[in-house]
Amino acid sequence: MLYVGLDVHQRRSSMCILNGDGKVVKQELINARWPQVIDRLRAIKEPFAVCYEASCGYGHLYDRIQPLASQVAVAHPGQLRLIFRSKKKHDRVDAAKLAKLLYLGEVPRVQVRGWRKLIEFRQKLLGKRTASKNQIRAILRGNGIASARWQWSKKAIGQLKELALGTEGEKLALELAIEELEDLSGKIRRVEKELAKIAAGHPGMTVLMTIPGVGIRTAEAFLAYVDDIKRFGRSRQVGAYFGLVPCLDSSAGKDRFGHITRDGPPTMRKLLCEAAWTAVRRDVGVKARFQRIVNNDPDRKKIAIVAIAHHLCRVMAAMLRTGEVWRRGQPDSKGNSNSNEGRDADRAVD
Fold first, then answer.
1. Domain 2-104 is in which class?
2. Nearest-5° angle of CA 77, CA 78, CA 80?
3. Of residues 254 and 136, which shows the higher confidence score?
4. To the nearest 10°, the Cα dihedral for 3, 7, 13, 16?
5. What is the CATH number of domain 114-200?
6. CA 208 to CA 216: how far, in whole Å?
7. What is the pLDDT of residue 148?
8. What is the pTM of this model?
9. Which part of the chain has CATH 1.20.58?
């Protein structure tokens, strides 16, 4: 078995090949685009495994390499400390280090991509739609029209189109902003329709959506990013995967905890925090946990909601393992819930 490390760029790539003993048998600089890189791999006669770093277009490259190689590993760029902390940064050196990581079986992998890309694309569209709404609000405020409680229904949009503003320029700006808003809303509906088709075939959707505050968008994102729950040995690893655990600085027997690590997809943390706020309002047990963390200190509300998001994420992982739906429970005298969102679910998977 040969181990091939690729440092891939659009117009130039570097390749390093190790043999079964971990020794370099070939290093090559390919001054060409990806098709020529594929041709060089196709010319390898022995069985080989390939490792390259995830970047723009890595999914297309994976589809091209996968039929040729015995194994294709896509390395997570944020975790390639061996490369990013090196004082010697060079394409040829990086290719050799990727090959060595593959040989040692220490490649930090990148999982599933299609479903996640569509979820992230929807988030970008939502951001653009919010910007359009803010632009409309700014135009209305500039003309002395209160819009703080404006509803974005079809009826409300129709009323916006009939507004008489001070100048023709402002009228035109409002019309274009409304057109952009309607166009983005239509695109979001199309994306959500496609996401609903993908999510409909996943049995975990029904289980996760029994949690108060977890709707179709949060459930599908959790399933897309977790992929196979069995790849996490413990439920607490899911919280770490989504960057909801605190940073740890341990020295001389003292542990110092800081802000959350923010590793993993920010979209998932955003959705979990939104679900946490809703769960606090709708479920007595979750509300009791939230109040216990806040401890009558309003400045701790953000800390508490992140803790609830972390808790929900671990419970969602436990529910996927067991197939058990959410059980509402009453808090005990200490403010802990006795439902399946409490400690029992975590112990079941820890």
1. alpha beta
2. 65
3. 136
4. -30
5. 1.20.58
6. 9
7. 53
8. 0.69
9. 114-200
Summarised one tens digit per residue, pLDDT across range 184-195 is 999 999 999 999
More confident residue, 167 or 148: 167
> What percent of the chain clears pLDDT 90, i.e. is strictly above it?
42
User: Which segments of the chain belong to CATH 3.30.420.40?
Assistant: 2-104
- Paired residues of 260 in beta bridges: 246
Q: Determine the straight-line distance between the first and last CA of the chain, rounded to whole angstroms.
A: 37
DSSP 2: E
CA 273 to chain CA centroid, nearest Å = 13
Measure the CA–CA gap between 233 and 230, rounded to whole angstroms: 7
Neighbours of 66 (CB within 10 A): 11
Q: Token match 């290093």: residue? A: 27
Residue the block writes with tokens 């079986």? 105
Torsion angle of C-alpha atoms 17, 18, 19, 21, degrees rounded to 10: 180
Alpha helices, H only, 146-298: 154-161, 168-200, 204-208, 216-226, 235-241, 266-282, 284-294
**Strands 48-53 and 254-260, sheet pairing:** unpaired
Distance CA 288, CA 197 (A): 36
Q: What is the pLDDT of residue 106?
A: 66
Concatenate the DSSP letters of all residues of 6-61 into one string: EE--SS-EEEEEE-TTS-EEEEEEE-S-HHHHHHHHHT--S-EEEEEE--TTHHHH
Element (H, E) at 285: helix 284-294
Cβ atoms of 214 and 208 within 8 Å: the answer is: yes
